Amino acid sequence: MREKIHTSGIWKSCQNSGLKSYAPGLAAILLLILLGQILRPGFASSANISSILNQASVLAVVCIGQLVVIAGTGGIDLSTGACVSMGALTGSMFMDGNMVQLPLAILITLLLGAAAGCLNGTGIQLFKIPALAMTLIMSTVIDGFTKAVTKGKPSLNLPKLYKAIIGQPIAGRFCAIILIAAVFVVLYELLLGKTSFGKSIYVMGSNRTAAGMCGLNVRFLSVFVYVISGAMASLAGLILVGYVGSAQMGMGDAYTMLSIAAVVTGGAKVTGGKGSLLGGVIGSVVLVLLSTVLTSMGMPEGARQFFQGMILLAVLIANCRLPFFRQ
C-alpha cells in the first residue's frame, strides 16, 4: 500500500502543471499565423494551413517516441532521423509497388525500428553508455544498415493506392495523414495518461531511485522507451514516404532536432518526468509554421536553419531555467 501511495504522489507531482504549459506554444502559433498573414496575404488560407498540418503530422508521430524517451529517462534519442529514413526506404522496398505487401512492410518497419531502439536502450542501460553518445552512434549504424539493404538507391516504386490513401483529402484540403497521426497521438496519450505503464514512465523520469523503491522495473522501462521511439520513428518514415511519394537516404535527418524541439516547445521537461503528446503536437505545428514564415520572408535555407537553431536554444534555456517551464 505504501508503494502505491508513494507512486501516486510522484505521479500527481509530475502532472500538476495543467494547461498552462501549453500556453507558450499556442501563443506562438497565433503570432506566427498573424505574422505570416502580414508578410504574405493568404497565408492563413485553408489550403496553406492544411499543408502545414500535413507536414506537422509526420513530425507529431516522431514526437511520440521522443517524448517517451525524454519524459521517462531525461535522455534524448538522436537516432530518430535515421530511423525515419530507414522506415521510408525499407518500407517502400518491401512494398515494391504492391499494396498487398503493405501489412508485411508495416510489420518489418516496426520490427527494424524496435530493434534499433532495443540496441539503444541496452547500450545505455546495460553498458552505461551516455544516451547522447549511444544514440548518435546508432544513427550511423542505422544509416549503414539502410544503405546495405537498399544499396542507397532512392525508391520511387510505391503503390498508387498507398499514396492516394496517405495523401487523400478527407475534409477540404486536409489529408488523411492528419487523421492517421491523430489516431496514434490519441492512443499514446491514453496509454501514457490512463494506464499504470504510462504513469510508471513519468514516475521513473521524475525520480528514478524512488521509482525503483516503489517496485517499478526501471531497467526494463529504460530500454522499452527507446524501443517505442525507434518503432514510432520508423513508422513515421513509412507514413512520410506515402505522403511525399518517394524515399531517399537522409530524408529523415531533420526530424531528429525537430522532434526534440517540438517536444520541448510543447512543455516537456528536458530532465524527465513531465510532458504530453498534445504539447508535442503543438510544438510540431509551431516549428512547421516557423519554417513556413521564414520561407515567406525569403530567407535562404542556411539562414532558416540558423534562426531555427537559435530559437531551439532559447527554448531549451527557458525550459531549464525559467520557473514557468519548470512547474
Instruction: Enumerate how many helices there are, as a single number.
Output: 15
Structural class: mainly alpha
Largest sheet: 2 strands, antiparallel
Strand runs, count: 2
Mean pLDDT: 88
Task: Report the portion of residues in β strands.
Answer: under 5%
Ends apart, CA distance between termini = 28 Å
Please tell me how large the radius of gyration is.
19 Å
Largest sheet: spatial strand order: 1-2
Overall 3D shape = globular
Instruction: Please write the string of helix (H) and strand (E) elements.
Output: HHHHHHHEEHHHHHHHH
List low-pLDDT spans: 1-5, 323-327
What percent of residues adopt helix (DSSP H or I)? over 70%
Detail the topology: elements first, then pairings.
Elements: H1 2-14, H2 23-39, H3 46-73, H4 80-95, H5 102-125, H6 131-150, H7 160-166, E1 169-171, E2 174-175, H8 176-194, H9 196-206, H10 208-213, H11 218-244, H12 254-265, H13 277-296, H14 301-321, H15 323-326
Antiparallel strand pairs: 1-2
Helix pairs in contact: 1-9, 2-13, 3-8, 3-9, 3-11, 3-12, 3-13, 4-5, 4-6, 4-11, 4-12, 5-6, 5-11, 7-11, 8-9, 12-13
